[in-house]
Specification:
1059 residues, alpha/beta, Helix Hairpins, Rossmann fold, 8-stranded mixed sheet, 7-stranded mixed sheet, 12% strand, transit peptide, KGD_C_sf, oxoglutarate dehydrogenase (succinyl-transferring) activity, mitochondrion
């Protein structure tokens, strides 16, 4: 009955036409013909749907199908199978009719839909979604097979009511606006076929996690690439390329193991496929217009990446195993202290397999895992700025991680969190996790609370691709997909290479102590290279001769490079791959440059950054601030600290009288003048746009529209967008400081500053200070001029808002306190008399007390032929102190002191009493009546000065300010000791004795006293708070008492230390 009904409704033209057959023989039939089919002689009938017109013939075909389905045409087989599954003939006829009307859809799909209940359709969609969401839990990710995970019931068809009987039923899956398996134009398949393809896609050697991304377009983009009907096969040529790269990775490690058996190298064994994966990723991203890649990674596999990805000469790598200090081509060349070979970085230009060039930079990194992450991002962002890469497609960042570090180190989240922030994003980072499945000696179940080490990335809605690292072709596929994702969507992406570690934490570590079962499995396990060779030979893709040819060539080159390493001598390019042309090393003499600015330029830039657009409506208090700043410049008033900063950055308006500038205006002047000279200025940190203490106001907000206006972004016509960048950061010190350090390392013609909200909080970024800033040049020969602004000062705000821990930064100075620099007196007045003292130092530490000095120290960072990090203990109280202002004449380029050539930062500020004007000669007129010379730094000067005036001791006590604490101004301290031959030196500070600058200053002052023939006692008289565990008291009353006492002791000429 069903067969006859179907025939009557389908008609003589066809019953059910497979799309492929219709494309071969198109024809049309009228409705009348379908209603009254005409019999055709059996001899004229053909064995296909296209000519079937006789019910008798169809019945005969059915009998043949029942006996042997393979004896009839495939299209007839599908027709009879549909009837067996209960598809009504009417549905088949309607499906064909729809096809004839031009709908591009398989008639079988519509027929199948008619046989699916709504519940079945819903369950099918739920089953597909279960695989999309949780299929990775059933993927074969562990190459060792030790990861026994419980069966996921959501992936079982029985959970949705399907039985064995349903496996060969045909179903149509189609959902509106979906790609992949659920797209509307997919052909019908049996449930068995659907399950097989789902398992191949989601439960094979690759596990995809992306359904947490709340963006349909991005999910569809991925589905289109991974839910394909069939995977795109590797060509023979691609297989050969992959084998070659895998052979290099494996044989390089074997070569090192044989040549340097007792050396630590943190080899890549167990994850050799990382190299072909990285190289495939680089090939693909370069094809998509990327030209620069900045890489950061830990020590595991670093030598392999250096040799086989970045292409550092292997002869150089082999020579580093000798442990001997390498010398440059010039014996006098600065080579620093060096670092172990698996911490070093380099940069090279290298071609891709498609004939394009890419510049690869692998940044040096300490053993502190993940510490380099945000440096890589900062350097990448700087590359994008200097190349006008606003689309962020020409420069990209790649970070490698370990599994324990990715889930355990907080800096990972700080890094991921930057990816979507406007002034920090670099258009997406590709994260490659070398997942050893063990962290040093700690199992995953003891090192994280989540199923995967990569789960932290879900918080940022990033796609995660897990892959069995023994499957080199799978690794290549996901690395290429990651490159495409990054270039398309400009967000981060994570590739989790699930592998193993052949040795212990290093090659001489015994892993059987803590992971006996894992290492028993590893010792019986063939590596990825061996497995791939066997696979290629088995499938016939390559011959044994081709494989042997690859191996012989690799071995020959390794041997050749090893021989070359015996006589290897580094070149300058080896030391400074991103060479800054014309910049001096610590061993080279750099001339002193002046930092004063022509008065007309100061006037010009000042008018520019204090002028607001007429249509802009600022807050009334901010409008008043800018009016006052403009008045400082135009009416002869003093310039404050913030304006001095802006002048240094740009170049402010100026006046002709004895104008004075406050701190905020001085900062603006520093920024503005540097901008007008063509430099880039970038300031970031928490709340820096307004300033923690509401003093900067670098970004203004329209009170009616909310629009932003950045005055320093309009210093001169044609100023490049973001040439001045000021941006509030995320609530991160560690990550953001690292970012700005990386940014500063890209180009020397930029003033890059990071400001802590309070200096007290800087210690959460201590790793960056300790491992990079203080020692980066010595270890890795990389200079940076980064400026760190650390608000510091005792104002009674408690233990966490008083001290930036000055003592820590001073302790890390590499200066010998007992050796005075050689002084060339003939160059005294030019500032060149100290030779290379400041160039030889690892960094500079200053504590300015005047806006003008702050202005000059910022400009000094750029106006020199080398770069050094600068630590500024910036003020809080002084930002609005009525006495903390500077005459504008101290900003211009006309020196005020007799004999001095040029205007520069003052490392020491002389007392303003006694014989005036004060001589700056090395042997000034002596003032024998002074009984005490108080040396101090920072804001305590103003309290000492006020109290001295109140007590009338101007002629008995001199107050000298050390503006630069490191390198120590030995020459100027000696001059002041000579000036006051009868005065007892005393050091006064607000901090407790065991903090602050005292223990830094004491041995250096004693060296100066001995140089001046003074009797020394082994200690310098101290006036300050007694030793303490806490930086300060939390009680305002106690603070005031302590502050009054230390000021009184400093000015009490009878005061002696009680111990």
């Amino acid at each position: 009955m069903a067969l006859a009904y179907a025939v009557q409704h389908v008609g003589s033209s066809a019953l059910l036409v497979a799309p492929a057959l219709l494309r071969l023989r198109p024809f049309h039939t009228s409705t009348a013909q379908r209603d009254a089919p005409e019999p055709v002689p059996l001899a004229k009938l053909k064995d296909s749907f296209n000519d079937g017109t006789s019910i008798a013939y169809i019945e005969e075909l059915e009998q043949r199908y029942r006996a042997d389905p393979s004896s009839v045409d495939k299209t007839w087989c599908m027709f009879f199978k549909a009837l067996e599954h209960g598809v009504p003939g009417e549905a088949i006829a309607e499906a064909y009719d729809a096809f004839e009307k031009g709908q591009v859809v398989s008639p079988l799909a519509a027929a199948a839909v008619s046989n699916q209940t709504i519940q079945e359709s819903m369950k099918l969609v739920m089953l597909v979604r279960a695989y999309q969401v949780n299929g990775h839990f059933a993927a074969t990710l562990d190459p060792l097979g030790l990861d026994a995970r419980p069966k996921n019931l959501e992936l079982d068809p029985a959970s949705y009511g399907f039985t064995e009987a349903d496996l060969d039923r045909e179903f149509f899956l189609g959902t509106w606006s979906m790609s992949g398996f659920l797209s509307e134009n997919r052909p019908i398949r049996t449930l068995r076929e659907i399950l097989n393809r789902l398992r191949e896609t989601y439960c094979g050697n690759i596990g995809f996690e992306y359904m947490h991304i709340p963006d349909r377009d991005r999910c569809n983009w991925l589905r289109e690439r991974i839910e394909t009907p069939e995977l795109e096969p590797f060509t023979v040529q691609k297989k050969l390329h992959t084998l070659d790269r895998l052979a290099w990775s494996d044989m390089f490690e074997t070569f090192l193991a044989n040549k340097y058996t007792a050396a630590k190298r943190f080899g890549l064994e167990g994850c050799e496929t990382l190299i072909p994966g990285m190289k495939a990723m680089i090939d693909r991203i370069t094809d998509l217009e990327c030209k620069n890649i900045v890489i950061g990674m830990p020590h595991r596999g670093r030598l392999n990446v250096l040799a086989n990805v970045v292409r550092k000469p292997m002869a150089q790598i082999f020579s580093e195993f000798s442990g001997k200090k390498l010398k440059g081509p010039d014996e006098r060349e600065y080579t620093g202290s060096g670092d172990v070979k698996y911490h070093l970085g380099t940069s090279y230009n290298r071609p891709t397999i498609n004939g394009k060039m890419v510049h690869l930079s692998l940044m040096a990194n300490p053993s502190h895992l993940e510490a380099v992450n945000t440096l890589v991002l900062g350097k990448t962002r700087a590359k994008q700025f200097y190349s006008d890469d606003t689309e962020r497609k020409h420069s990209a960042s790649v970070l490698l991680h370990g599994d324990g570090a990715f889930s355990g180190q907080g800096i990972v989240f700080e890094t991921l969190d930057l990816c979507g922030l406007m002034d920090y994003t670099c258009g997406g980072t590709i994260h490659l996790v070398v997942n050893n499945q063990v962290a040093f000696t700690t199992d995953p179940k003891e090192s994280r609370s989540s199923p995967y080490c990569t789960d932290v990335a879900k918080a940022l809605n990033l796609p995660i691709f897990h892959v069995n690292a023994d499957d080199v072709e799978g690794v290549v596929r996901v690395c290429e997909l990651a490159a495409e994702w990054r270039q398309t969507w400009k967000t981060d992406v994570v590739v989790d290479l699930v592998c193993y570690r052949k040795h212990g934490h290093n090659e001489i570590d015994e892993p059987m102590f803590t992971q006996p079962l894992m290492y028993k499995a590893i010792r019986q396990h063939k590596n990825a290279h061996q497995r791939y060779v066997e696979r290629l030979l088995e499938e016939g893709s390559l011959s044994k001769a081709q494989v042997r040819g690859v191996h012989d060539r690799v071995q020959e080159i390794l041997n050749s490079e090893y021989e070359a390493s015996r006589s290897y001598r580094p070149t300058t390019k080896d030391w400074l791959a991103s060479h800054w042309q014309g910049f001096m090393s610590p061993a080279q003499m750099s001339r002193i440059r002046n930092t004063g600015v022509n008065a007309d330029i100061l006037k010009s830039v000042g008018k520019a950054f204090t002028a607001l657009p007429e249509e802009f409506t600022p807050h009334r208090q901010i409008k008043k601030v800018y009016e006052q700043r403009r008045a400082m410049i135009e009416s002869g008033e003093e310039v404050d600290w913030a304006t001095a900063e802006a002048l240094a950055f740009a170049t402010l308006p100026f006046v002709t009288h004895c104008e004075e500038v406050d701190w905020a205006t001085a900062e603006a002047l520093a920024f503005a003048t540097l901008l007008s000279e063509g430099n880039h200025v970038r300031l970031s940190g928490q709340d820096v746009e307004r300033g923690t203490f509401s003093h900067r106001h670098a970004v203004l907000h329209d009170q009616n529209t909310g629009a932003k206006y950045v005055p320093l972004g309009h210093v001169f016509p044609g100023q490049k967008p973001f040439q001045f960048t000021v941006t509030n950061s995320s609530l991160s010190e560690y990550g953001v400081l690292g970012f700005e350090l990386g940014y500063s390392m890209e180009n020397p013609n930029s003033l890059v500053l990071w400001e802590a909200q309070f200096g007290d909080f800087a210690n959460t970024a201590q790793v960056i200070f300790d491992q990079f800033l203080t020692s980066g040049e010595a270890k890795w020969l990389r200079q940076s001029g980064l400026v760190c602004l650390l608000p510091h000062g005792y104002d009674g705000q408690g233990p966490e808002h008083s001290s930036a821990r000055m003592e820590r930064f001073l302790q890390m100075c590499d200066e010998n306190p007992y050796t005075l620099p050689q002084i060339d007196h003939k160059d005294w007045f030019t500032g060149s008399h100290l030779g290379t003292q400041i160039q030889a130092a690892n960094w500079q530490v200053v504590n300015c007390t005047t806006p003008a000095n702050y202005f000059h120290v910022l400009r000094r960072q750029i106006h020199r032929q080398f770069r050094k990090p600068l630590i500024v203990f910036s003020p809080k109280n002084l930002l609005r102190h009525p006495k903390c202002k500077s005459p504008l004449t101290e900003f211009d380029d006309v020196p005020d002191d007799q004999g001095i050539v040029g205007v520069r930062f003052k490392r020491l500020i002389m007392d303003d009493q006694g014989i005036m004007p004060k001589s700056r000669a090395p042997r000034p007129p002596q003032e024998e009546g002074v009984k005490r010379v108080i040396f101090c730094t920072g804001k305590v000067f103003y309290e000492l000065h006020a109290e001295r005036e109140r007590q009338g001791k101007q002629n008995e006590a001199a107050i000298v300010r050390l503006e630069q604490l490191a390198p120590f101004p030995f020459d100027l301290v000696c001059r002041e000791l000579y000036r006051y031959p009868n005065a007892e030196p005393l050091w006064c500070q607000e901090e407790p004795m065991n903090m602050g600058a005292y223990f830094h200053v004491q041995p250096r002052m004693e060296s100066c006293m001995r140089a001046e023939g003074r009797v020394t006692t082994g200690r310098v008289t101290f006036a300050g708070r007694p030793p303490s565990a806490s930086p300060s008291t939390g009680y305002a009353e106690v603070h005031a008492q302590e502050q009054a006492r230390l000021i009184e002791e400093a000015l009490n000429l009878e005061y002696k230390m009680p111990w």
